[in-house]
Each structure stands twice: as structure tokens, then as C-alpha cells.
Amino acid sequence: MHDVLIALLTGNRSVDQRMWRSFWDRLHDGALQPGETVALLTSLSTRMPDQSTLSALLRSLDERRPPVDVRLDDTVNIVGTGGGPRTFNISTASAFVAAAMGVRVVKTGSRAYSSTCGSFDLLERLGIGLTVSYGQTEATLERFGIAFPGHFVYPREVMALAKSILPLDLRTLGGFINKVGPFLAAMPVSAQLVGVSDPSLLPGLRHIAAAVADRKIWLCANDLGIDELVSSVDNVIYTNDGSGEIQLRADAPGRAPGGITELRPTGDDTTVVEHFLDVLSGNGTSLATRTVCWNAAALAVAGGRIEEWPEAIAAAEDALRGGGALDLVNRMRAQPAHRAADPRGVR
């Protein structure tokens, strides 16, 4: 059994970068014993590794990536850890609203893991393609102000793990990959808004974010366990730029327990697109509209487009109710980007 597995399963020591490097080498060489990758994913998804092990894992993957030849300045990435109560595609809607406000946005994501319809599933149904390279992502940003990168931003080791556990599904064993997914995607942006559903993840994710120097990272959390900002409850944003915590107070206190149903996905799989477009048309519920606008405002403030939160929220509501966000969706649907290969179940 590989040393990485022994350390993870016994919990008697951290896994350093050298050990992870050896594991990935063996994975690509086909030299691991049968079941070792299943054991790895099961262990990681059952218990989050210590901060030292987690940091070493991410560094070991970063060192294996090909160089990224573009820099997406003045661009914000929005992504979540998944998990928590099921909601409609809030972050994808927020990305369109923010882009209609003039914020340059990239939305990374996946197919459905714990949700009914993941961002990649929704985009496929809308007829909006994923970009297949950094160059195409940059070109799409210049054209539309928003882009949806495909699987090329994730380490090839994720794909190798997915193949190694067949016929098992990564969506069954890949909970850990989903949780750290926001830090697996290599996005050369200026800022990143990360929704965190499970508060127990925050210490590890804050530790990772603190070591990131090339972009501003905002980790967002609330008591509902939804991995986006929600306007009906208090939210906290943990920053990595020395600005401390940002507290966002509920604008409709007391609505959350019953009102959360307003954020649920449509019950009929065939009406996902219709429901999504209704929200972007300004015909969604009050809570859905305000929640989307709060997240779009966060993208504007994090990206430096607008300084003050009230102004940013007002601008988001104008972009949504004024038709700018819906118009952007329709323009992208009319001229979709080249579709990326998207093996089901790999974040």
C-alpha cells in the first residue's frame, strides 16, 4: 500500500508534497495496486485531511500543470463547494447579472453532484458552450464579458482518478474533490468568490486561501448551509487580503425558515431552463431575485467595479429587471462557443 494511503488511513502523520508526487507518478504509470484510488477517495471524502496534508496535495497538483499563458485581469471567478440544501442555479444566474453590470466574470463549475442540475447541465440545456482553452476563455470574455471554462482548468489527475475507479462513479466517491474544487481549478483571475456550504470546511479553506497571493479570495458562508450569499439571513465573508471579515446582514429578517423554499429548484426537470430564465427576467420570487442580486453585487465589489454594497445591489437589480442579464443569455445562446468534452461526473 502506498505511503499516502497508510498516512491517511492511520492518521498518524501528515502527507507531504514528496509523498503526493510519488502517488501521482504511480497513478499515471499504472503502478498502483487495485483499489488504492478507491481507498484514497473514500478516505479523503470521509474525513477532511489536516491543513498541512491539504496544502501539500494542492501544491503537488499545481506543480504538474502546464504553464498558463494568459492573465485574466479585472476578472472575477464565482464557484461553490456544493452540498447543502438544493437550490436553483443561483451562482450561474448571478454571473450573468454581474456580467450585465460590466463585471468580467468566469463561472467554473461541474455537472450535478449534490444538486438537481449542475451549472454544466444548465448551460448544455441553454445551448451555451463551455470554453476549451484559456485563449478561448479570454476571447469569450472580450466578446460577452462572461465565460464558462470547461474541464481543462482542472488537474489531469482528477480525470485519471475518475478513470481508475470505473465502473464506480466519481459522483459517489468524489465528495472531497467537490469540496476543494474551487481551489483545483486554475483560473488566472483577479478575484474569486467561493460559496462554502459546510462550515467545518472553513478552517482548511481559509488556510489555503491565506497562502494564495495572486488573487483576492472571498469565502462566503451562512447558517442555512447554502453555498451562496442569501439575502434573508446573515452572511459572513472571510477574505484573504487583510481586510478582515465582511458581515452582510439579512435584509428581510425572519423569512429564512419558510422562505428558503423560494430558492428550491423547479420540481420538473423539463422546466429548469424556463425557471432560470424567469428569474433572470425579474419574474422570480422576491427572495430569489434579491439573492441573485446580492451575489452579483459581491462580484462587482470583489472585482473592484463598484465600491459600496448598496450601490452594487441597486446596479444588480437594474441589470436584472432592466433585461440586461436576459439579453446577455440570449446573445450567447444565439452564438454558442465551441463545446468542450465534459465527461459526466468529473468536476
From TrEMBL:
Origin superkingdom: Bacteria
SUPFAM superfamilies linked: Nucleoside phosphorylase/phosphoribosyltransferase catalytic domain
Pfam families recorded: Glycos_transf_3
GO MF terms, alphabetically ordered: anthranilate phosphoribosyltransferase activity
InterPro entries membership: Anthranilate_Pribosyl_Tfrase (IPR005940), Glycosyl_Trfase_fam3 (IPR000312), Nuc_phospho_transferase (IPR035902)
Record has Signal as a keyword: no
GO biological process: L-tryptophan biosynthetic process
GO cellular component term of the entry, any: cytosol
Span of domain Glycosyl transferase family: 74-326
Keywords for this protein: Amino-acid biosynthesis, Aromatic amino acid biosynthesis, Glycosyltransferase, Transferase, Tryptophan biosynthesis
PANTHER family associated with the record: ANTHRANILATE PHOSPHORIBOSYLTRANSFERASE
Name under which the protein is recorded: Anthranilate phosphoribosyltransferase
Organism of this sequence: Streptomyces jumonjinensis
